[in-house]
Amino acid sequence: MHDLIHLLQRFIPPYKIRVAKSVIYNFLHAMFGSLSIAMLIPVLGIIFNNQEEVLDKVPFALDSHSLKHMFNYYVTLIKHVYGPSATLLFVGSIAVLATALKTGFAYLGAYELIYIRNGVVRDIRRKIYLKILSLPLPFFSEERKGDIISRMTGDVQEVEASVMSSLDMLFQSPILIIVYLATMLIMSWQLTLFVFILLPIMGALIGKIGKNLKRRSWEGQTKMGEILALIEETLSGLRIIKAFNAEDKMEQRFSAENESYRRIQNRLMRRRSLAHPMSEFLGTIVIVIILWYGGSLVLQQKGSLTAEEFIAYIALFYLIINPAKNLTNAYYSVQKGLAAMERIDVILAAEASIKEPESPLSLRQFNDKIEYNHVSFSYNENKQVLKDITLTISKGKTVALVGQSGSGKSTFVDLLSRFYDVEKGEITIDGINIRQLSFNTLREFMGNVNQDPILFNDTIFNNIAFGVENATQEQVENAARIANAHDFILQTENGYQTVIGDRGGKLSGGQRQRLSIARAVLKNPPIMILDEATSALDTESEKLVQEALDNLMRNRTSIVIAHRLSTIKNADLICVFQEGQIVEQGTHDELLKQNGIYTKLYNMQNF
Q1: C-beta separation of 352 from 419 below 8 A
Q2: Model confidence over 196-215: pLDDT tens digits?
Q3: Beta-strand runs (E) in 23-144
Q4: For residues 313 and 290, what is the distance between their CA atoms, to the nearest angstrom?
Q5: Are 148 and 141 within 8 A, CB to CB?
Q6: In whole angstroms, what is the distance from residue 310 CA to residue 305 CA?
Q7: DSSP class of residue 446?
Q8: Cα angle at 318 between 313 and 322, to 5 degrees?
């Protein structure tokens, strides 16, 4: 219950006015529900000719005794003037009116909760998405994408289906139970005291059954995350699976995970399905006990209840049973939903390892140089990726990074964008440590073209204009021309409004790369980072892309990661990486004269 209260405290406050209205409507629903049952007493009294006759009228007052006295006075008056049948019609009309008001207020209470329920679910989804956007890349290297998707979809859906769908029960049922019990207490405190003893016993038994429900729900949601992760891996690697005839192996992995999920869900649902029959069985036991005890009081005339009042009392208790059942079902559902919420909170509560500065400095333009001062970095304690790197990159120069895979080149540029933070040393731009700049300020100076172009399932225009506000058609077309992309774009079905499919799947590799270059051209940043932008292309595409890159790098500070050394012959500085260190640096001709690692790499490629 504490977890539920904490959840409501986090997400309900924006809807407190609607909550208040719902509580008022449900209170009125309960009041008129009690009144409709109270109408049974005079009806039964008239039928059995046992109605208390009141001939004297008393002044109006709001206490229960005066109201009962006045009601009996008018019933007696109507009975004497119009007869018992007309009196029954009069009392029945009041019961119909009370029921109409009861159901009307019940609808209004549920109406308000609809907005609360859907609003909270929307807020949770939005919080998760904003958190994912704000978290640094190291977080996602530790988590599986499928499991994150599961938390954003399946777990949020579970919170909606379990916790939010139970809100009407949680807001309505306690009010109904309290009002009905209060009415019963007024009718007979002895019998109601007996009910107070029985209900906690029933609640304790139901609570015992649902004890492990939350843990089972956590296991089920975690397993579903693993299944979604496997599905995501299958879709991403379908070409390799088919090429290596690994369909049977993947099917066995999926079947094992799927069967494990089935077993967890069986255990969960078996326990959850006990809620309704158990509450109904225990409710029947309580009714029988009350009938025996209350009937004994009436028969022996030891209590204050008449026979017709006792029947109305039992009817009121029956009205409590449904809210009690709903509360029980809500308890089971909430436990399941809270387990899903705990998984969501793993993301929401995640600490960002790379944080914005509290008081960021201003950097309006890039004027001088980028400096790496004794920079070291490692992804884990076992292996140092960069070791004491010192390098100056002057404005307007092109610096190329070469070396074997895993030598630290990509990490070098990732540190400049603060996708990761240096462990030792510092990186400065115009003498300002990049840790003192906000993420937006720092990354506004940079454009990226990666080996694997990242495009979105949107139009060509929107992909090129991505991240640039209010880009015009003319600006986008100019960027495409510089990137050698304009001609092929015009040949597509709808030109710049052509949707390119998931990750640009409708385009060739060279076309995708030229679109990503056009995107960088439109952003027009002073610092350009090119990460092996031509390594995966055929000769003709490479030529077109290389021309686009040359246009892009003109008059810009560029850091180029290259495997094909022919593409960086004209770089102002070439740095050779080996095992996290810069072991050689100079121009192309200077490095060839050293006859070292660069010369070896160059000769291997020429051969």
Answers
A1: no
A2: 777 777 666 665 655 556 56
A3: none
A4: 10
A5: no
A6: 6
A7: E
A8: 145
HSE-up of residue 39 (Cα within 13 Å, Cβ side): 18
Spell out the SS3 assignment of 276-338.
Answer: HHHHHHHHHHHHHHHHHHHHHHHHCCCCCCCHHHHHHHHHHHHHHHHHHHHHHHHHHHHHHHH
Residues 317, 323, 328, 331, Cα dihedral to 10° = -150
Give the three-class secondary structure for 586: strand
Q: Where are the alpha helices (DSSP H) in 39-83?
A: 40-47, 64-82
Using DSSP, state whether 450 is helix, strand or coil.
Answer: coil
Each domain of the chain, given as residue ranges in start order, spans 15-134, 369-606
Domain 369-606 homologous superfamily, CATH: P-loop containing nucleotide triphosphate hydrolases (3.40.50.300)
List the helix and strand counts (H, then E) for the chain: 24, 10
Q: In this predicted model, what pLDDT tens digit does every residue of 548-599 receive, in sequence order? A: 777 777 778 889 888 777 778 888 899 999 888 999 899 988 888 888 888 8
* pTM (predicted TM-score): 0.71
Grouping H, G, I as helix, E, B as strand and the rest as coil, residue 342 is: helix
DSSP 524: -
What is the distance between the alpha carbons of residues 415 and 406, in angstroms, rounded to a whole number?
15
Determine phi and psi for 368, rounding to 5 degrees.
-130, -75
Q: Please report, as a single letter, which amino acid is at residue 323.
A: P
